[in-house]
Design brief:
With 723 residues, this protein is an alpha+beta fold. It contains 17 helices and 36 strands. The strands form 8 sheets. It has an 8-stranded antiparallel β-sheet. Residues 1-34 are annotated as: Disordered.
Amino acid sequence: MSGKQDASKGTGRGGAEQRKAATSSGPPADRPEKIRNVALVGRSGAGKTLLAEALLAATGALTRMGTIEGGSTVSDSDPSEIHQQRSVALSVLPLTVGEVKVNLLDTPGYADFVGDLRAGLRAADAALFVVSAVDGVDAATTALWAECERIGMPRAVVINRIDHPRAAYEAVLAACQENFGAVLPLAVPIRTDGSITGLLGLLSGTVKDSGAGTAGPTQRPATEAERVDAEPARATLIEGIIAESEDETLMDRYLGGAQIDLHTLTADLEIAVVRGSFYPVLATSAETGVGMTELLELLTGAFPSPMERALPSVTDLDGRPVGPLTCDPDGPLVGEVVRTTIDSFLGRVCLVRIFSGTLREDTIVHIGGHGLTDRGHQDHDSDERVTHLQSPLGAILRPVPYCVAGDICALTRLTDAETGDTVSDREAPLLVEAWEMPEPLMPVAVHGAARSDDDALAKNLGKIVAVDPTLRVERNAETHQLVLWCMGEAHAEVVLDRLRSQGVKLETVDVITPLRETFATPAGARGRYVKQSGGHGQYAICEIEVEPRERGAGFEFVNKIVGGVVPGHYIGSVEKGVRAQMEKGVSAGFPVVDIRVTLVGGKTHSVDSSDAAFQAAGALALREAAAEARIQLLEPVSAVTIRVPDASVGAVMTDLSTRRGHMTGTTSVGDERTEISAEIPDAELLRYAIELRALTAGSGLFRRSYLRHDPVPHNVVPATVSA
């Protein structure tokens, strides 16, 4: 993100000339009831970003719209977004309609960036599902709808891109109703010479033209023919609204032929949308402006304010629950960092949703983060002064004096804040219950292009982990590889691009699966370590027998020395040497497991024997035994649970058989989805996050946990490390 330099020098995406209407934020919202936080969600390519641009332009927040191809949209300021021509991060786009401030949260539509999608839903009070009139509804969007339903998130649907030559509005509406349930249009498209130029409001009976060929949008009464064509849809809409009405007499009156006035229908519609039991549909075109007025009316009139939504649970720093929060500007300060970026001029830039209280400039606040140690985010508690409070418009930051409960702001120049942290009063610090973070399951191994680059790589990785909770960094002690666990290829590309942009020279290499070694056959050997080079020498001889144990039985050392040929104080030295060699491996450089080593003989020297000599002899003896035995490589096997749509079960199970997977069961979990349990070697899971997505049109999910190590088949040649 960038600050004042954007307004003076341009951003490389259109510059200040295009964005001059957005340089001033105006007075901040001062009442939660005048705020709407709406997440734009949907598949990549549905048109969320351009729809947001059109809404900003329609309300005067922008002088003109940017383009995806030109990299000039307000949402997509990250170099990776411009390069990939798709959103990869959450952005906040506030606009004002009358007295209502609407914070649009433009979320990424690609599955790799689901972390920012979940952050957007956390900061929002309603979700606007954007569906392409060209591409329709995909399985991932359907799964997201079901997820929002489980948490009671109010939602509506926008069928976008209705002006496209291949648009099929009616077919896509039918697909929405099939996949989402009882979603009902509030308006029907009006065509002029085959092109959609406006919408007929089913409740109002008026047509709003987009303004093609005129000075702007116009409104007129529907013609008789238009009313007749729209009557079936109008009747269905009215019945749907009445079915959700709290007035139980309304349906009887309607069926009896009474005319229900527009005010009553509109009020009941808005209540049902806020309650999350009614889901309106609108048609839009970001390019021609069709539907923008109607969509703004829906956002401000029907979607809930922050005061109408339950807030997350909070605890004190010791984990004790605190009474439920309310969206009160005068209440205790509680906010949450939903996204963090690092700017070369401004340092850490944190997007914060304020749940309670009012955050003001020059205030000392408590920053607390707990519960993400497995992702590299250590628990931390610190106090920091808020010196720069901003209202974000994408990458543009505008200073504001305060931010009230329900609103979203940006804090700059903080030292410790990370995504997921809680911002609260210094005198009464609190922690917001963490939201569910997706598990990164695709490993990418990297190293510095030269040894001198390793320090820069480690330093900059720390910064990226701090801002991206979906990234996990692992330094594997067995393979000695630095592994970045990512959400998929696109996520990995963004992470690597960000590292390279910081001047880090790095290379990617094949991921090595951490194997184990074991003895498949018994063997005996003699370890002779005798050296003489002036002064005291080194003398130790030990004889051992090695035999395999059952899988998982571990290591056992047995002493069968008779007659004191190896003094008792050297017995432990032999064991130390054997254990040290087991850690290094005896064949492919992986640790040795599940063996019994028996010390059966040896020799000592009255002067030259020592602890170090017998350790060396023990290690040598194990290596010599390995040369005589057959060494078996063992590979890790994970217990994997895969959740997929019922229609994809066959394809997924067939694919599992090609991965040496062993299926252990299937369970129906509702929502037309099935959970498949299987045991799969880890080597077959390196790219499974990508391949499962391809098999299930982006809707498949899986989780894994280590189960055991099994022998590597003879026809599989794993990557190894040096011993």
